[in-house]
Amino acid sequence: MYGKSAFGSCLVFIPQVATYHEAFAGGLRQAFGRIPTAGLPRTTRLRPGHTRYRARVLAARAELAVAMGETEIAQTFRLELQQVPLSQEKREQYHDELQAADYLEQWLTKK
User: Fold this and answer.
1) How far, in whole angstroms, is CA 58 from its chain's centroid?
2) Measured between alpha carbons, how far is 104 from 3 in angstroms, rounded to an integer?
3) What are phi and psi of 54, to 5 degrees?
4) How far is residue 52's CA from residue 100's CA, in Å, rounded to a whole number?
5) Contacts of 38 by beta carbon, 8 Å cutoff, 6+ apart
6) Which residues lie closer than 8 Å to 111 by C-beta, 6 or more apart?
7) What is the pLDDT of residues 18-61, one digit of tens each?
């Protein structure tokens, strides 16, 4: 249907994210000769206290909740996402990703 523009995401919650992030990034580096941060596949750099990663995780969780019909849970994640301190530039950069739950919900209600 969408070909190369279609992709999926995987959201994993673990207590010691840095260790797993290093291993995942190492695997990408081994497979691609570098750590891809744009295009597909890609990952983000993990920096202590960096809010961009948190915002993207909350957006993904909200989208998943909408897909599962859990609108109250999705709203909880949306509210938490609004509290994440992101610059206007970052909000614009990740606009589609941050709004994915809204887009999905609108699409589902049209049917």
Assistant:
1) 7
2) 19
3) -60, -45
4) 16
5) none
6) none
7) 777 788 888 888 888 998 887 767 777 777 655 556 777 888 88
Give pLDDT, residue 53: 65
Confidence of residue 92 (pLDDT cuts 50, 70, 90): confident
Q: Is the pTM of this model over 0.85?
A: no
98: its two tokens: 């941050």
Long-range contact set of residues 77-85: C-beta below 8 Å, sequence gap at least 24: 77/101, 81/55, 84/51, 84/54, 84/55, 84/58, 85/51
Task: Say which residues have a Cβ less than 8 Å from residue 41's Cβ, sequence separation at least 6.
Answer: 28
Among all chains, which residue has been given the structure tokens 């990408």? Answer: 28
Q: How far is CA 36 from the centre of its chain?
A: 16
Encoded tokens for 108 = 């589902």
Instruction: Count the Cβ atoms, other than its own, within 10 Å of residue 109.
Output: 7
Contact 59, 98 (CB under 8 A): yes
